[in-house]
Amino acid sequence: MPFDLVWPEGHARLDLPAAGASAVDAALALAPVLPALALLQDWIGAPLHDLRPAADAPWPAAALTLAWGEGGRLALPWRLLPWGRTPPAALPLHHWPCWPARLLLQALPAARLPARERVPGALLLLPASFAGADCALELHAPAGGLPLPRLGGVVWQPQAGSLQLAAARPLADSGDVGARVWLEQTLEVDARAWFGGWPQPLELAAGAARLEIDGRPCAEGPLLPAGRGWGLRLQRLAAVSEPLAWT
């Protein structure tokens, strides 16, 4: 039997396969999960407004659906998810998805990259790599059709071939596009990284990267070591007079 978990900000759906159709069966099925529901309220940061058997409504589509306990499942709408807050270890949530994400290596004002300096063979140094600054992760395709927060505090160590997510935290969108250098490789990142970090590092060596200016592809090429940092060799440039698209 499915149950609606009602918060003022939205409804979640909990499906317990052992629950029968009667009110007594529903109460018996709910009793063992009440401590876990208390943990869920703590994680979301607000008490439940109501808990009731679900009406004949479709399973929520724009939600994060996870396995709950043994054989159950829980659908949490995006607006209820507490970004940056680690779920309690005792919360019986399983089978977290992996989301495709891309790694932002460098953001610069577009004025610092005039067209006359963007020539084939030029090496664009990445100041953040010299300073040991953090990178950022952004979902490659928004999950559920909704934008999810970018992650900061991501530490890339290309010499070691690893990406550390333990200190990841949600970032507010600055709205300033400018010039950005993205790693070409799309990553598969455990969704738990968006909730207070994911302790397991990802294997990630240096490869190709792409330069975008005001959201449009401008150049791409390999990442090369440059002293204590890294640079992007501008190997292929997009034609300015033509639509900027890679094949």
Automatic annotation (TrEMBL):
Protein name: Uncharacterized protein
Organism: Rubrivivax gelatinosus
